[in-house]
Amino acid sequence: MKTLRFVLLSGFLLASNIVFGQHWDRAPIYVDFLGKTYNKAFLNYENGDTKYCYAAIPKTCNQKTIYYKADAGSPVEEIQGQLLKEITILNKDSSVYIFERVNQVLKPGDKPKEKEWLFVEISGYANLYLRIDKYKIDNQGTLILIAEGMLATYFVKKKNDQNAILIAYQNPYPSSTVVGANKPLKTNGPAFFAEDKELVGQITSGKYTSRDIKEIVNLYNKFMNGK
Asked: What is the pTM of this model?
């Protein structure tokens, strides 16, 4: 099963290591002599082409260049990130890590930000994306998400939508809160999840908060798949 860790950084000090999400199996990886990891992957291009290779995931959400190797013994090559739609990292148990270049808006109708690399937490009728400061896969195949400001930002997007919409803020510490964390869910949630009126009612009543965003998206996808 895949392994995912959430690491919080304050300045140059490591504040905490928190296991965040499911325990996943190790990704098949190649580590070069500089210690850089390349994972078995598919590079999915904007034009529809696909390349199977060893790829290094983007270190940050706004990384412009992606590095890859045709196979473990090949030299490192590079490609401009704007040519890619997503990077799919393959794991031994057939599960995947997916990083997708996505436009983001704070609310519908806003001018979108330039596309950035977001981690796909949930894939379905609606995708749930996590935007974090830094991404890393260590030489054991563990995906590490690094939050320098102690804040994780979540976006949602339906398959035919152009932009991902801000839906929640989270502080990974269970006992800590973020001022205004529930505002995006209360503001954007009712319209985004409008088909599921019961779910919308549970959001507006406060039964579900930003900390439940994964459960909310899973419930919505289940509802839409059952229509």
From this structure: 0.85
